[in-house]
Design a protein that fits this description.
The complex is a heterodimer of chains A (196) and B (392).
Chain A lengths: L16 E5 L5 H10 L2 E6 L2 H10 L3 E3 L14 E7 L8 H11 E9 L4 H10 L23 H10 L3 E8 L5 H4 L4 H4 L2 E7 L1
Parallel strand pairs in A: 1-2, 1-4, 2-3, 4-5
Antiparallel strand pairs in A: 5-7, 6-7
Chain B lengths: L21 E5 L3 E2 L5 E2 L2 E8 L9 E5 L25 E2 L4 E2 L4 E6 L30 H14 L7 E5 L1 H12 L6 E5 L7 H15 L17 H15 L2 H7 L4 E3 L11 E2 H16 L2 H13 L10 H5 L5 E7 L7 H13 L4 E6 L13 H18 L5
Parallel strand pairs in B: 5-8, 5-9, 6-7, 9-10, 10-13, 13-14
Antiparallel strand pairs in B: 1-4, 2-3, 4-8, 11-12
The chains are: A alpha/beta (196), B alpha/beta (392).
Chain lengths: 196, 392
Amino acid sequence: MNHNLDFITQWIEPKSHVLDLGCGDGSLLANLRDQLDVRGYGLEIDPDSIEKCLAKGVNVIEQDLNKGLKNFSDQSFDTILMTQTLQALRYPHLVLDEILRIGSKCIVTFPNFGNWRTRTYLGFQGRMPVTKQLAYQWYNTPNIHFFTYADFEALCKDRDINILNRQFLAHGFPDSALKSVWPNLFTEIAVYHLSR
Amino acid sequence: MSLEAPEKPKDLSGSVGLVKPQKVVIEQPLKLACGVILPNHTLVYETYGALNKNRSNAILICHALSGDHHAAGIYEDDSKLGWWDQYIGPGKPIDSNRFYIVCVNNIGSCFGSTGPTSVNPETGAPYGADFPPLRARDWVESQRLLMEHLDIDCWAAVVGGSLGGMQAMRWSLEYPGKLKHAVVIASSLKLTAQNIAFNEIARKAIKSDSDFCDGNYLHENKVPHRGLALARMIGHVTYLSDELMGQKFGRDLRTGDLLQGKTDPIEFQIESYLNYQGDKFSELFDANSYILITKMLDYFDLAREYGHDPVTAFSHASCKFLVISFSSDWRFSPARSQEIIDALIAAGKDASYVAIDSNHGHDAFLLPNQRYQDALGGYLNKLANQIEGHTS
């Protein structure tokens, strides 16, 4: 299920320089360009997504995140975006370091494994969770790290990463109603705005 | 760069159909990078599609080492389609229904534009080896004069593969206001030592032919066929991939067999193929042109005059870029395209990069490939929509 990420436009300065890591079909970059006159690039490896970016006139660079971001120079972007990708990378902590080397700020989103649905799936069924947010079997999932937003915040503390903003997203009942009361149990997607 | 063109098609509906080359004498003097001034020069070119009312839908196609102006369609008395017919035509990625497409045979080449086989007005004899050395920027300058002749103020795009991509990049720096997009395919910021080495072997092959006569073979009524064929064979190997040659020819024999106890001559299919390609090329191309243009390739270094910094170089560009590479291209490998895109990103230019999976080596830029077609077509379709005022 696609969560509406429109609110992150508040975290991005107009006319700023943005790099979207794993930009998909380029919708987010196209919106930022059209609404905020933001300039930037998307990185993507899926051929269909790349083609959709080209058709939208979005700058797209075919590049595999797992092979690093060494070709981008220090502090060359205002904001780095990475939606729903952190959990699929080999070494998320090193990628976070790289992102904050290239950009002064970053926005990352990831599925919160602390959500009650995944907890009950594993806790009661004794099977690895297959949910709307994590819609794969254990053997074919691209998501190779499972973590909760509390785990993520612990990592940020360890690595001296500042949390500027955070937002917890959830769909439907009871998650959307209860996420503010007990975020780790009811958040499906966590969104963080970070700097170093 | 391959001379392989499809057999004569029975159905020309997907093609621009019958085409005729045009010829123009550019009367403005052309000052070459080497300092020599050509008081006038002849250009042979073709156009496909129609120029719109605003004269804003023109695309310049830049050919590579052995290319010519015949990029698409077919001549009445010929059986071969243009060299990029796969990508230029109605409904094709470079869509002649929407763009006005111009392809010119560049000076120094040998298909009708001023070059080593043309008569030197000062001597009344062919230039031969005395044709002045050229740089890619000279081709750009000559193309700009043609642009004036065609009354086009700004190219919607300049598109080229290999040496063609180098011209597109040079255009973006020399005349930033005269193109909206540069499409740089299977190209490079400069040649590597290995690239130059192969070019020198090819030149040496030509010069070693006794019929070369130090470049004055036309005066002697000779043609260095053997040397030029050998040069082409060397070049041709660098345009293909090991994998493709394996698939296409493997160790198949054309004549003889490898059983012991036989003395019959043995010829592998690849030997026969390369000999055929070399011989065919030596009938079509001029040896001095080959030497001239391979040197032009060797000399090309986009960033030389910008402190050898491609980022500084591209900071002068104002067009948008599409860069395309092919996985098995070892002449201008994906690493070369990566250097281009990295410099464009560091210079903050609007740019996209597509790395196409292909086993066709450098020649992939001429050959059918769905992903390549979709990427190039999608990019130019968006451009056509913008020109035509669509909101999409």
